[in-house]
Amino acid sequence: MRYCRFTITTLVLLISAAGTQAQTPDAARRYFQEGVRNLSEGNLAVAFENYSRAIEISSRLDSRKKSDLPAGNSLDSADTADRVTVVNPFTAVAYTNRGIVRNRQNDMDGAIADFNAAIRISPRLAEAYLGRGISYKSKGELDKASADFDRAINLKSSLAEAYIDRAELRMDRRDFPGAEKDVDTALKLNPRLAEAHYLMGHLYLQENENEQAMAAFQRAVELKPQLAQAHHGLGTVRMKLAHFDEAVEEFNRALELDPTMAPTYMNRGLALLMKNQDAEAQKDFDECLALRPDLKGELEKRIQLAKELRVGKQPGGVSHL
Does residue 129 lie within any of the structural domains? Predict the structure, then answer.
């Protein structure tokens, strides 16, 4: 059985403006709280503007007045974030949260610029290192990501989310013992962190411990029903156990939550193929390749294997699918 572990991120939204001082303007605080609300609700463009206003009010440009900036440049640019002198450390928190917005908008360079600004203001702000590490990882700069995750943990050993992101990086590098240690630590710090249970499920799958993997994915779904990746994990285990009806149900739920998960279309199609629902399976295979043409070779091999399994020509059973 081939299985896909989807990337998860555990960016930490700072919901209170730590570092707020008496001189922090009320307007900056209001914009910050509006940013928290809009980011939590998924209103990314509005949250970006909220945090930009909070930053603008609570900081000033170094050596150049705002009116001296080149046309089109303002405090919402990555370049400007590199030239900020801070009046109030409150600004570091606003930069960190705006970096989260940019990360979710897939603007990794902008996110890194904001996290850099936050770190210059508050060099011990662990959440800023975590956010920057996640953004570096998204860009494929894994050594930088690893260094930032280590730094975040050194600064704040209670930050469970940092252990999760470092564990995922270690899994990518096939350091499964190191990953398991990090996931264990995260669960001790926060037993209700769904992403930790999700990663533990994949660690169990790596060892073919299906029942333990099932329990871990189920716990992740209990804690965070909207975690599409956990439903995919459950479907994968159920298919591995030849429970095809239940597998399809889990893949259905995963795709309801996130219709862009190409490997989920692949796995649901294979489960349908094993149920002799070839026409429906083909629709899923087509959707998979529309999203991820690079999966064509793997898909063709798995379809052939499924067809051999249906007629009993493949030894070893469905666990090899």
Answer: yes
Total structural domains in the chain? 1
CATH of the domain at 88: 1.25.40.10
In a domain, 37, yes or no: yes
Element counts in the chain: helices (H) and strands (E): 16, 2
> Other C-beta atoms within 10 Å of 307: how many?
14
The amino acid at residue 12 is V
Residue 22 lies in a domain: yes
Q: Which residues are CB-contacts of 163 (< 8 A; sequence separation ≥ 6)?
A: 153, 182, 183, 185, 186, 189, 196
pLDDT for 82 equals: 47
Asked if residue 120 lies in contact with residue 146, where contact means CB atoms within 8 angstroms, the answer is: no
Residue 100 lies in a domain: yes
Over residues 114-139, the pLDDT tens digits come to 999 999 999 999 999 999 999 999 99
pLDDT band at 15 (very low <50, low <70, confident <90, very high): low
Task: Judge whether residue 313 has pLDDT over 70.
Answer: no
**Residue 264 token pair:** 């989920």
* Model pLDDT, residue 5: 54
pTM (2 d.p.): 0.82
- Mean pLDDT score, 101-126: 95
> Domain residues for 65?
9-156
CA of 198: how far to CAs of 143, 223, 250, 279, 319, in Å?
A: 24, 10, 14, 32, 20
Burial class (CB in 10 A: 0-12, 13-18, 19+), 42: exposed
Q: Which of 284, 238, 241 is nearest to 263 (CA)?
A: 284
**Is the distance from CB of 11 to CB of 115 less than 8 angstroms?**
no
The strand pairing partners of 60, in sequence order, are 85
Tell which residue, 296, 294, 316, 290, has the closest CA to residue 305.
316
